[in-house]
Each structure stands twice: as structure tokens, then as C-alpha cells.
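User: C-alpha cells for Amygdalase, please.
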Amino acid sequence: MTLRQDFLWGGAVAANQCEGGYAEGNKGLSTVDVIPAGKDRVPVMKGKVSMLECDEEHFYPSHEAIDFYHRYKEDIALLAEMGFKCFRLSLAWTRIYPNGDDELPNEEGLKFYECVFDECLKYGIEPLVTITHFDVPIHLVKTIGSWRSRKMVEYYERLCETIFTRYKDKVKYWLTFNEINMLLHLPFGSSGLVFEEGENEDAVKYQAAHHQLVASAKATEIARRINPEFKIGCMLAGASTYPYTCAPDDVWKAMTRDREHYFFVDVQSRGEYPSYARKMLERMDIHLEMEDGDEECLRNNTVDFISFSYYGSRLTSADPEVNTQTAANLFPTLRNPHLTTSEWGWQIDPLGLRITLNALYDRYQKPLFIVENGLGALDTPDETGYIADDYRIGYLREHIKAFITAVEEDGVDLLGYTTWGCIDLVSSSSGEMSKRYGFVYVDKDDAGNGTLERRKKQSFEWYKKVIHSNGIEL
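Assistant: Done. Predicted C-alpha cells:
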């Protein structure tokens, strides 16, 4: 078995990290628009500091981002030149429903995405669309508390009905929520949750998770009614967790850490809350409010495929003295002495991608799709403006080898691979431009200065050869 002939090679971006034009085209204010760069970014994303408006003291990188809103034709032409088969992008909810609870959608927003999809299809590029990628209308945060409210399911259904109907002949592949498990780690950044002092934060998060899981199932139901040819996927911030030692307590700790994340996909792929999750909620004294029909809806509307991001593996110990944790992609993990790290401290583990692919495929037996993978690095142009990013090529080459091996030797069913940030964009975790992932360099710095000129990096021509050879030329 080798990669399928219709393997979907491509790249991925998110509306809030690339579009800009945050107040243009009747777009409403979104959670991502009020998350600043700098020291307050992570506290705001974690819901520890409430920031529901923009102020003069902070810089908000999403407001202009890389101006894809005005430059999408130029950018998609570059992707086509590389030979992209697939382009993963997301919709800004507030471009389509500016407040989230509007009765009618915003035609300017709908037309913008229609033009983007048409531009992709002109070059034979399949759009892979994330319905919500870490954005919630601020109006819904202020009025109903975002996903802590059941009303969000209704508003999400309205959004899905609108976009599935409008784009039923232009988009085939859809993802319901980006990295749905990030709700547990960045509750405001991913889902618009802000906590009140003294409330049970875990109870709020898992109730919000239930609402999102029901919304995901409802979206799947609507999609199949509107166009039975649609393929609906879920999306996990993926990575296997290794035990620090072979001590059984460490192995158990690693297993339970993985289950915290599998929980979401277990529901979306298998159609019910797994027994371990029910017991966990029971121990935490969390009693989910469910409506009649919720369990049936989850059971009858499971996803067609499972997509995930992968940047590196995780490591944990049961020993509290050993478990002095460090940040890596906002997930707590120990330093693995067998791995090197990126300039931002993320641990590089290509074999871990093969391990993760096998773990997911063994567990779910559904097609998989790697929709984020890449190296955030400092790129320094030479005197001519050229960027020789052989470090990025090396990173991607080893990860591509790993997933090809998972397909050829392990029999994993893999639909495609979209590298993260195929055009440089604003980093979600840090808000920086200097943390670059792309094959295309964008002239902009962390303070928002620059011409926004696009330039091809060394990796541009390399990835073009990889796609053209279907992964044979690496």
C-alpha cells in the first residue's frame, strides 16, 4: 500500500491568523479580535483575564494579520504554483453572522468566501473548511456566556445550515471545530469562556464541551441532509503521551493523559460518552445537563473521518517531583532527553507522528487526515531577500517519511496532509509574526510593521517537488 493517487497534499491557515480586515465587510467583533499580543495573551486565552473589548494599550495582531482578505487571489495563485491539491482554511463566524444571533446572514461575508472557494476551484484545489477555528462572536460571549449556554447550539446550527446550503457545490470536506480538546486548556481562546471567581471551572468546561459535541453532531446531520456527498470530520490537537519511565504508575499516567483528549473524538467518532469519561465526571462531581434526544443525536451522527494537528509528542510522570512541567504548544509536558527542540521549545519527534497515526487508526478505524504539522522558526532573509530554510525542509521531510511509513507498513488509511501556516501568519500561541511556518515569506514584524510583500522561500520549490511526485521525491 502506498499513498493514494488522490492524496490531498496542501497547507492550512485560519481566518483569525491570516485574514485581517477585522472590521470590514460588515464583520462583527470576535473573541480572537480582542486577544492581544504580549504578556496578557495567554491569561486572556485561558479565561483568567477578561478582555471583551479592544483598548489603546494593546496590539491586536488579528486586525490586519497578513491581509489575506484583500490578497487571497495572489496567495491562492502561489499555492497553485506549488501544486496544492487541498487548502485548509476556516470561516470567520462574525463575517457571516456579525453578532452570532442575527436572523439573516451577512451577504458580504458569504460572498467573500464564495470568491475564495471559486479561486481555489479555478486551480483544482479542494477547499477543506473548518467551520469554527477558535472564534466566537463577542456579542454571544457578553449576552449568553458563549458555549456555557445551550443557545449556542442553535446559533451554530443556523451558521451550518447557511454555509452548507450556500457552498454545497463548492466544498466537500468540512471540519466542525478546530482542536476541540483545546477547550480544556485555552477556554477563552478556543471557546469564548470567561470564568467568575469561585465557580467550578471544570464543570463549566465540560458542559461547554457537551454543547460543542452536540453542535458537531447536529452539523453532521444537517450536512448529510443538504448534500450526502459531504465528508464531515472532527479535529483533535493530537500527539501521543509517553510515560517518563517504564514504572506502571507512569504508564497509567500517560494513558489517562491521552484519554483526556481522546474523550472528544470518542464521542464524535463512536457516538457516545465512553465509560471512563462517565466515571471521570462522576468522580469530579460534574453532572452534565443533557436534553432529551442528545444521546440519540450523538449516536446517529458520527463523523466520516478524523483529522488532527501534530507538532510533537508529550511526556509525563506520575511522580510529582519529576513532573515539573514546561510549556510546549500550550500543553504541559516534560522535556524528553531523546528529542531536540525548536527555537520556541517545541519537541521534535517525527516517529511520534507514526505512533499517533497508529494509535488513532487502531482506536477508530476511520480515515485520518493530518491537517496541521510544521516548524515555527525564525527566518532571516539574505541580502537579496531570499530565505534558505533547509531546517524547515528537514523537519517536514522526516514527518512525511513517518506518515508514508504508517501508510505503507502499518496500513493506516490517510486522506491527506496539510502543513500548518503554508503562508507565514500570526502565531496563535504567541501572537508573533517572527514564529514562521510558511513556504511563502510575508514581510511583517511582530509590531505589525512591514510591506506584506510575499516571497518564496527555499522550501517552496522543495514542497512543489514533493507534491508533484506524490511523496516519492523528498
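User: Anything notable?

Assistant: The first helix runs from residue 15 to 18.
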